[in-house]
């Protein structure tokens, strides 16, 4: 973070880190504590919490339109109202402060401020809302970490030129970002351009599970949208650095999401396959920014001319274009070289993941069609990996994602070793949804995996920092409150705070108080 950037010491070398972890004394980190100025926070995103979908001059986003397309979202849910944060913002910020949060990550809705996507057409009331939010945060001493794009593209730009599939997106995103720096950069010192390029491009243009819901050309669209997204990121960062950094003195980066792909065995084939898993999920975005400015070789080889290339000028712009490494992490998968027997064994799980997160079988079919058509290229075929069964005894969250904290530590180390990101790694999301059908079930945290989950994941992060020397500088829990979980709808509850969707009442769950203790002591509660 901005303050961190200048103050934070270099990561401890491995040996020293180990020694200091063992040694006693007031200055050394105690058994379960974190570096002194570690940033703790919680996160949300505009479309998932705000509601007020057509109020005060807001334009439609691709998620407004997608969610209202029949068959897209489980239970026909949508974000029209959800938490109604737009009207309950003051209450929410106060609760956040009461719980002891000092850092808050939220996102701006582009069409709320610019209904047509064009910056010439400003919706003042939309801008006012974020001004009030930021002022409120500042009033309580909460540091805003602001994401420019958490998936709600103005529908007008989707209609105009196909959104991210067009090169025109790059300029429009740059102009939009520039306006945001101008409006809010006096108070916002920490910026994230995009949340989770992999989800945007793979789920939005590969599986059609997310807006804009395309699944008919996954062998090109995933790469084309990724390419434009990366360029849009680079140009937005360039504007920030050239026009705003000197006066506003903030930092700007990007947040990538990745599972950890654990090799199914020690064989060379399985290790290579797992590495391809990492290449196609994480490195496809990380290598252009923190590496040599190119896409990973495995992707270049597999996709050939379907993969666009960067010019020299673009490579220069991309390399080093993130002041920190934002990381969202949720789960670990076992990956290996494709084998028909294994594919058949794990097929039911793959299909279950798709069907449980899509509103209708028609959409599932659309997603699968290109995969089983031998003549159609696909990002998924290029990846050439098969998901292996998880170890016996593996627990799953209600999303169906494996609870595997060891993978978090491995992923942090992978990023640290491969990219050594200047400015460190900020975990901008981590968390889980549990079954909480009633307020009572939400209160009974012992009946859920919530506290054990966070405890185990944070312990692995701590080990990565203290024992392995990974330069992790912050952690944001997903999510501050229950919200609209995209195509899965509203039943998947990720919140530290429960939201009653009838009365809109907020009630902190036991995990929220657990976080209060964690943050107060900078140590994992016993
Ligand atoms: C994030 O995306 C989003 O940023 C956020 O808006 C969302 O609400 C939150 O997470 C919770 O979903 O099938 O075991 O391989 C989530 C990214 C990508 C994480 C797919 C889980 C599949 C796990 N997800 N991944 S697994």
From TrEMBL:
<dbReference type="InterPro" id="IPR017853">
    <property type="entry name" value="GH"/>
</dbReference>
<dbReference type="GO" id="GO:0008422">
    <property type="term" value="F:beta-glucosidase activity"/>
</dbReference>
<feature type="compositionally biased region" description="Basic residues">
    <location>
        <begin position="1"/>
        <end position="17"/>
    </location>
</feature>
<keyword id="KW-0378">Hydrolase</keyword>
<feature type="region of interest" description="Disordered">
    <location>
        <begin position="1"/>
        <end position="36"/>
    </location>
</feature>
<comment type="similarity">
    <text>Belongs to the glycosyl hydrolase 1 family.</text>
</comment>
<dbReference type="InterPro" id="IPR018120">
    <property type="entry name" value="Glyco_hydro_1_AS"/>
</dbReference>
<dbReference type="GO" id="GO:0005975">
    <property type="term" value="P:carbohydrate metabolic process"/>
</dbReference>
<keyword id="KW-0326">Glycosidase</keyword>
<protein>
    <recommendedName>
        <fullName>beta-glucosidase</fullName>
        <ecNumber>3.2.1.21</ecNumber>
    </recommendedName>
</protein>
<dbReference type="Pfam" id="PF00232">
    <property type="entry name" value="Glyco_hydro_1"/>
</dbReference>
<dbReference type="InterPro" id="IPR033132">
    <property type="entry name" value="GH_1_N_CS"/>
</dbReference>
<dbReference type="InterPro" id="IPR001360">
    <property type="entry name" value="Glyco_hydro_1"/>
</dbReference>
<feature type="active site" description="Nucleophile">
    <location>
        <position position="429"/>
    </location>
</feature>
